[in-house]
Amino acid sequence: MIKAAIFDMDGLLVNSEPFWQDAQLAVFGDLGINITRQDTINTTGIRIDQIVKHYSETQGWQGPSCDDVCDMILDKVIELVAIHKPIMPGVIHALTLCKEANLRIALASSSPLRLIETTLKALELEAWFEHCHSAEHLKYGKPHPEVYLNAAESLGISPENCIAFEDSFAGLLAAKSAQMRTVVVPEHQVATQKQWVISDVKLNSLDELTAEMLTK
Question: Catalytic site residue 200?
Answer without folding.
Answer: no
